[in-house]
Amino acid sequence: MSKDSNIPNNYxxxxxxxxxxxxxxxxxxxxxxxxxxxxxxQSNPYxxxxxxxxxxESRLQLLGWGRILSxxxxxxxxxxxxxxxxxxxxxxxxxxxxxxxxGADDLLYADVYDxxxxxxxxxxxxxxVGFEADDFExxxxxxxxxTEEEIYLYEEAILQEMTDQELLGIL
Length: 171
What we know:
- The structure is a single chain.
- It is built from eight helices and no strands.
- The protein starts with 10 loop residues before the first helix and ends with a helix.
- Helix 1 (about 10-35) crosses helix 2 (about 35-40).
- By secondary structure, it is mostly helical.
């Protein structure tokens, strides 16, 4: 060993010989345990066998013709299978909105009505023009029970609460 370091003397001079000795040991082990694999490593895998192209046609004729599949017959099966797959996946991934409680729908409509009545100034009134009266059937007032005077007073109260900008937005 040298005085200044922990490296043995002539370590780097002997290193290549040690590496080649390890490689030779591994090669001997491969030859012993896997002789076929060792033979493959010694041959050229890209070499074309002798007289390959001279005998190619005769070997090809010995194989005979394979069966040809018509895609016209198989295509309808693929289409049917893909449609079935899409239908099954959409049915599986569709959330279940059904409830057993009949009052849940009334609660939902009440929540929607409360939300819109609280946020009416933020809603573009032009978007509501496309809806029909049937769309608001659940949340609308029951007009058969009100007299015309009560309806008039209700409309007046709503109009008095609205600002001029809201009234212009409706018109």
